[in-house]
Amino acid sequence: MAMLTRRTLMKGALVAGAYAGGMSLAGQLGKPASAKAATTLLTRRTDALITDKGPTRAAMTYGDAEVPPVLRMRRGLPFALRLENGLDEPTTVHWHGLRIDNRMDGVPFLTQPYVYGGDGFDYAFTPPDAGTFWYHPHCNTLEQMGRGLAGVIVVEDPTDPVFDAEIVLNLRDWRLGGDGQFIAQFKPRDAARAGTFGTVRTANWRQTPQYDAPAGGLVRLRIAATDVTRILTLNVDGAEALVIAADGNPTADRFKLDHLMIGPGQRLDLALRMPDSEGAVAALMDLRGTKPATLVTFRATGASLKRNLQDLPALAANPLSEPDLSAATEIPFILSASAEERPKDGICGSLGYNFWAINKVPWADDSGDPTAPLAEMKAGRTYIFNVENPTPQVHPLHLHGLVFKPMNSNKQAFRPHFSDTYLILPDEKVQLALVADNPGDWVFHCHIIEHQKTGMTSYVRVT
Ligand code: C2O
Ligand code: CU
């Protein structure tokens, strides 16, 4: 690749912005969906323009552009994509939140073989739900995701309300040193605690990018928290924002965004009402850290469209099965610390430690020996996962292939809502109710990748 200059960096940022959103949804709907033609997605090393220190070398990306593309699909239409692995190590693609055929789930050993460097794999499925999802590898995950492999999926539905603009935000950090180059992805003592934090924060691989959107217009923000570690407390300054969907599913009613916590793996769809005066700027903030961080800014352009958030039609619900609580079987899942030594030579990226376990079993999904499923479920039946977190850390727990409805937490109050990733607080006990309506072996793990890779992984079987 030619040496990238600051000038091409700025152009790249604009192109990424235009691709990631900024154009009207109507414009996007006019284009043929990628659902019919098989496309190719190449994993490869790249130089990335993340800091002002020049290119960060040996980042990893998907596709031809620097930043992994937003993959657009249509609900109920077949989607096909060939993964080509241009890396010198095995990889796979997991489609986080999509309820698809188990053979397409992208978990080595459990659902598919490794895709070695130079090899490919054909993924084909029909997404049943509309919403915001994401994709990432499930092999050497800390390294591969830490270096860039994570992209956003938008599943469109023809009945989606039309916004004046749509902006897709892939929020993540990078572990870079003062010279802008990668440093060690983790520190063992942090892996045994909250995880090792990145040093540089980005949206769509840019530090505090600014997007233009029509003054007084309604913008759909599709936010994916793709970092390997960081939990965010999101707020919008300078504009009104309503939560319209979370983790791919529309919320039962819309509510004002107010210090909402989301963890790695989670998504949030916001309806942002841009300020009326041209040039006014709104900001997406993370208020969780010791000092507030501005993640993205939005600048109002043109004469005000004078839209009203109240006029926005509701999103259509996805076709999910309602749990039958009268006939549910309860299954315990207890999170804990664990201290067993383990070999460091797993080729799927063992970190060499067991710090965590689920039901006392530390499985790190990086060896060819996945132990036994922690639970077996009968297809079509309702189950309740009784999850307890006696650890001092927050864990974003993600279940593949199925969705659950959190209920009865001793720590959090929530509206009924289907999700695939639940952020469990220290000392929390929660019930996750689900219908086991998708057969296969489904991984259930913490999405703080250091926790996942040091034992906080399990899987359940639906037959
Ligand atoms: Cu987002 Cu097991 O994955
Ligand atoms: Cu965790």
UniProtKB/TrEMBL annotation:
One Pfam family it belongs to: Cu-oxidase_2
Domain Plastocyanin-like: 51-159, 207-276, 365-462
Keyword flag Oxidoreductase: yes
Domain of life of the source: Bacteria
UniProt keyword Hydrolase, yes or no: no
Alphabetized UniProt keyword annotations: Metal-binding, Oxidoreductase
InterPro entries referenced in this protein's UniProt entry, alphabetically: Cu-oxidase-like_N, Cu-oxidase_2nd, Cu-oxidase_C, Cu-oxidase_fam, Cu_oxidase_Cu_BS, Cupredoxin, TAT_signal
Protein's name according to its UniProt entry: Multicopper oxidase family protein
Organism: Shinella sedimenti
